Amino acid sequence: MTYQDTVKWMFSQLPMYQKQGKSAYKVDLSNTILLAQHLNNPENKFKSIHVAGTNGKGSTSHMLASILQESGYKVGLYTSPHLKDYRERIKINGKEISKQFVIQFIKRNKPFFETNSLSFFEMTVGLAFDYFAKQKVDIAVIEVGLGGRLDSTNIITPEVSVITNIGLDHVQFLGNTLESIANEKGGIIKSNIPVVIGETQNETKNVFKRIALVKKAKIIFADKIKSSKYDCDLKGAYQDKNIKTAVQSIRELQLKQYKISEEDIKYGLLNVVKNTGLLGRWQILKQSPKVICDTAHNREGLEIVLKQLQREKYKQLHIVFGVVNDKNLETIADLLPINAKYYLCKPNIPRGLDSNKLKLYFNDQNLISNTYNSVNEAYKKALENANSEDVVYVGGSTFVVAEII
């Protein structure tokens, strides 16, 4: 099979949460453990950092990888979802996994995948771990896909565990309270392994403290520690919390004798995009009119991003907006700027919410909106309508951003 054939098979033959939703969610790690054994347990052949959280885990993972790269380490980076190409999920020192490795991995293991009905996500985690082991990375930054306790990545024993924050997202899988979600994400805390919590929240701090106590794990609340201020090439005020989280995680590695200097931290944070290729975080695509996109898609993420958007100077705000069909619009209604013109669209995936259904909701909220047949059509119309002193924002879903980058 060609690379395109291989990826198409992975997407079409196996359940995948990002496209399919709840039916793709597994309730235990038995398949992942079985796959790891089949692959000769690659997760034991490299050191790692494990990153979970509702928001910020992608940015934090990329910051950590960039700092470690600046320190001279060979760094694996596993994240999800991808924006343009599947291979974005698996990188070493910012370079995507080769098409040939993906092809050969699937070809070699396809009978096993089919026999055991492995999910897209389980396969991809196996591919990443196998790749990092064979390429002999010094350390890999592993981002949790969904939750933590039952996530396929949760077979590693990391150098440090990281939980950025907790918000009400994926409640159909993780529970509908912050405490229950924290308990699921706290499942990545391992015995005698330090855990860095990015944001102290009244509803969740005792959950993490309890798990850490049971696991005899040192716990650090990053936002409670005074530290130097660092600049970062990932723009947006909301990155300040992620920077603190990343730096405190690095401090724990330094205690384990990792050779990481202050200069490495400084330049690692200043060169995240260059070192890792991260896209879609308060990314400015164009000037005059200024076009900004961001992958924030739940209440906590959108609240921060839209507050930042309101601080922009513009005559008119144009918002290209689309969501997935299991999004609870009630949770974000009060965040949507009333003074904006909305260009509603359906991301080009089966889970995308029909733009006409989205418009009904926007009508109920007295928001000015029009519907379009595609993300690109909506984006094109927004650019046509915007003058040089306006701002165009693209968001609502990772999949919307992916189509215009």
List the helices and strands and how they pair.
Elements: H1 3-13, H2 17-20, H3 30-38, E1 47-52, H4 57-70, E2 75-78, E3 90-92, E4 95-96, H5 99-115, H6 120-134, E5 139-143, E6 160-163, H7 171-174, H8 178-185, E7 195-197, H9 205-215, E8 219-221, H10 239-255, H11 262-270, H12 272-276, E9 283-286, E10 290-293, H13 299-310, E11 317-321, E12 340-344, H14 355-364, E13 368-371, H15 375-385, E14 391-395, H16 398-404
Parallel strand pairs: 1-5, 1-6, 2-5, 6-7, 7-8, 10-14, 11-12, 11-14, 12-13
Antiparallel strand pairs: 2-3, 3-4, 9-10
Helix pairs in contact: 3-6, 4-10, 4-11
How does this model look, in words?
- The structure is a single chain.
- The chain is of the alpha/beta class and 405 residues long.
- 40% of the residues lie in helices and 14% in strands.
- The strands form two sheets. It has an eight-stranded mixed β-sheet with strand order 4-3-2-5-1-6-7-8, with helices on both faces. A six-stranded mixed β-sheet has the order 9-10-14-11-12-13.
- Strand 3 (90-92) and strand 4 (95-96) form a beta hairpin.
- Helix 3 (30-38) runs parallel beside helix 6 and helix 4 (57-70) packs across helix 10.
- The protein is globular.
- 46% of the residues are buried.
In short:
It contains 16 helices and 14 strands.
